[in-house]
Write a structure and sequence with these properties.
The chain is of the alpha/beta class. The chain contains seven helices and seven strands. The strands form two sheets. The protein has a five-stranded parallel β-sheet, with helices on both faces. The chain has a two-stranded antiparallel sheet with strand order 6-7.
Length: 176
């Protein structure tokens, strides 16, 4: 069996954001099943080269190559102004339109308001449609207060755990 690989992008400027913590928990589930995940975040890039979309920058070029060779992509973001973060957009903007064609895509987000739940799913769907991903796994947007167990803010809530388990299984099916 060949190595199953995907890339992940943490779109929050903070390493301790809820969306990044959820992404890391999802990645651990996938790695436990033998999936190789190549992780990217704002820290993976030279800020100047990223904002200028310098495709010949070594870090940017590595990201593009990893995306082209992966079988899918997982995006995670907090919701800012009813959409994904500018950091996530800057990273995704490096990818040529065909880079994700015939792959799977999954979006994971956290939001403060219920009004953002549908908007985020629509944003991910439009993004994946642009890239012509072959299989879009339904996005998950959790409200900030749904992420952690109210009795213990270091553990995910039962609902968050269930959603992570469900989407990890969907990703494994997409990987074959």
């Amino acid at each position: 069996m060949s190595q199953r690989t995907l890339i992940s992008i943490a779109g929050s400027p903070s390493d301790s954001s809820r969306s990044t913590l959820l992404l890391n928990a999802l990645i651990l589930r996938l790695e436990a099943k033998g999936v190789s995940v190549r992780r990217f975040s704002l820290d993976s890039f030279d800020p100047r080269a990223l904002l200028r979309a310098q495709l010949d920058d070594p870090k940017n070029a590595r990201f593009i190559a990893e995306a082209r060779s992966a079988e899918g992509i997982v995006l995670a973001t907090p919701v800012y102004k009813a959409g994904y973060t500018g950091a996530l957009k800057a990273i995704v903007d490096l990818l040529p339109p065909e880079a994700l064609q015939e792959k799977f895509g999954f979006g994971l987000a956290t939001a403060k308001s219920r009004a953002h739940l549908e908007a985020t799913a629509v944003s991910f769907s439009r993004l994946f449609a642009f890239f012509r991903v072959a299989h879009e796994i339904p996005a998950v947007t959790l409200l900030d207060d749904e992420v952690f167990d109210p009795r213990d803010h270091t553990r995910f809530s039962t609902g968050a755990e269930r959603l992570l388990d469900d989407r990890a299984q969907a990703i494994l099916r997409a990987l074959g």
